[in-house]
Amino acid sequence: MILYVIEMIGKKELLEKEVRKIKNCKACRVGKIGKAVPGEGNPNAKIVFVGEAPGKTESQTGRPFVGRSGKFLRQLITQIGLKEKDVYITSPVKYLPKRGTPSRSDINHGLTHLAKQLEIIKPELIVLLGNIAYKALIDKSASINKYHGKIIQKDKQKYFPTFHPAAGIRFQKIKKLILQDFPKLKFIIHNS
Ligand code: URA
Known about the structure:
The protein is of the alpha/beta class. Helix content is 51%, strand content 12%.
């Protein structure tokens, strides 16, 4: 128990240190405007949600997934019986990209921060929201269309790919698939 508490405090401090690093990172900020959006949530989370890059609302507030797609994501999270305070929400890219879509170098650099965050949190499961998260953490050449809704194991880490909530808001077909994937995620979480 004592060791567990010490580990929890250690994770919180290490994560805060990484968040400060992200906020002060000059490489992240090249050509960007707005606030850094490092991520937020429980340092001891068993489940981490990884998106793509902050949108305008996130860049104004410094908080991940607080715009329209964020509302949808947070609804999905609570609908499957999770509490926001128990998970961690972040993305590979930490600033609003120039034209909305992150460049390869935005992703490659952001990944160095994301990898540190994941190394500290050590989640049991990483939920990949969309192609950018999938390509960044699993396979550059593959697409989420083929692998969504099931567990993937890579280097002893479990991942659950699904579509990005923003795509679900734009396309009814994708919303349907997300609404099929999340109950599967619920089943996996409650049966492992
Ligand atoms: N989309 C993301 O991927 N991340 C956010 O924080 C907001 C929208």
